[in-house]
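Quick check before the chapter quiz. The format below is the same one you will see on the exam, so make sure you can read both the input and the output lines.
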Amino acid sequence: MTEAADTAGLLGRILPPLLVIVGGPLLIWWARRRRPSGSGLRISARTALTRGSVLAVVEVGDRRLLVGATDQGINLLTELPMEGTEESPASPATAPTTTGPWTSPIDHLRNLTVRRPTRPRPPRVRHP
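Here is the expected output.
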């Protein structure tokens, strides 16, 4: 056989697996990019309460749900009004502070779970 025939035979054996190895992931990436995400489920806010529990605001279609999740399961706590409707709370510029007695449940729980230093830190002293 000639050298050109040997090279063609080698390319014939190497090229198909190479196309599968390189082209397969590219084809999957392209197909996933073109496919719509479909579920319509979006988590717009999430706050961890303890190591195994979390509060989340979940948007499904035109509904907003406050959901509590633990290691044992997920519970619907309440349905929240959609933003931009008349029932929605005041805008952030006029929203009440989170230190008063009338705070949202998420802000109240966040204030209970945020780690704060127990005592002020001493000032740093730089030694020459």
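If your answer matched, good. Residues 41-113 form one domain.
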